[in-house]
Amino acid sequence: MNKLQDNLLTTLKSCLCPPGDGVYTVNTAKERKQKLQKTIFPGAENVDTAWKQSLETLPESDNAVMLGIASDCGGGILRGASWGPLFLRATLHEQGSRLNYFDMGDVRVNPHLLHDKYLNDPTISNCRNAFYQDDSAKYPVSPLSLTELVAEDFYAAYPNKGLFGIGGDHSISYPLTKAYLKAKQQQGKKVAIIHFDAHTDLLVERLGIDLCFGSWCTHILKYLHNPAHLIQIGIRSSGKPKSHWEGEFGVTQHWAKEVQELGVEQIISTILRQLDNDNIDELYVSFDIDAIDSSFVSATGTPEPDGLTPDEAMDILKALAAKYPITGADMMEIAPFTDTSGEGITSSQQTLAVGADLSAFLLTKMSEN
């Protein structure tokens, strides 16, 4: 390992925990966590030891690297997306798909915190003592801050690998995409963010908080070569028209009703033409599961009707991946215990199945790159 890789390894062992352990609980879902960890680390007597040993093999791993961020503190409607990383991982393994990716583990989440900039010094000191047994430790303590540190160190050490983040609420995409965009700038790459969502996430702030599930897109625009390279697909729940968002922020939007009225092939053609005209090199896909119609995915914090079908979303992803390398991605807002459909466990399983299919495709394409 070189110096940057050694630095990353130290950061990972301090700031992450084994896959599934990102949600801080005592007994809740204990059996599910143990089942997942036995699948990932078969025969291991001590999961923490086996996980840390696995981190040593990161240099030889596939290009797609999974990172769980089990935080829903940046949400604000129905909570529960903190369980997304555990349940989505389990679904991927239960499907038996032969996927090539490296599971780096989970960010250590304090469920009461969002970003260190919102904390005073005594709180940071107390949390560092709880996390690191050292109130003067150099590491941050909040999910967004920890994710940004890990992602920045990751891309510095492995510029040719890509992170696949599992959330968590959509605020998590802020540090993931920020670190990604800064790394690609240094590499001289021109990239676009393909953002699937029912909502624009283009608030400047929400109730005084500038980094949350409804505002993260606003704050990554400055890291793009052009704000039009934030391409949003599936929008349908907004108090303002498309013309406002495109005119005010300069982003590109393809609302769900356009997909329905024009057909998915025409939308694909329009997106590909833009990417070609703008000489885009690589893509990052940020996927909020509520981009999919609520009849397919109701286990999420803000389910919305009249959305994309899973097939439409997959058709778009396949067409993009056929032309451009997908070098970073995330899957957000799957909340397995939060289901407003009234169908209970069946609907939750359906949401996870859709999320797993899309995630498996993204992981596969990232590994190929």
UniProtKB/TrEMBL annotation:
Signal peptide: none
Domain of life: Bacteria
SUPFAM superfamilies in alphabetical order: Arginase/deacetylase
Xref: Gene3D superfamilies: Ureohydrolase domain (3.40.800.10)
PROSITE patterns the record matches: ARGINASE_2 (PS51409)
Record's keyword terms, sorted: Hydrolase, Metal-binding
Record family assignment: Belongs to the arginase family.
Name used for this protein in its record: Arginase family protein
Native species: Thalassotalea nanhaiensis
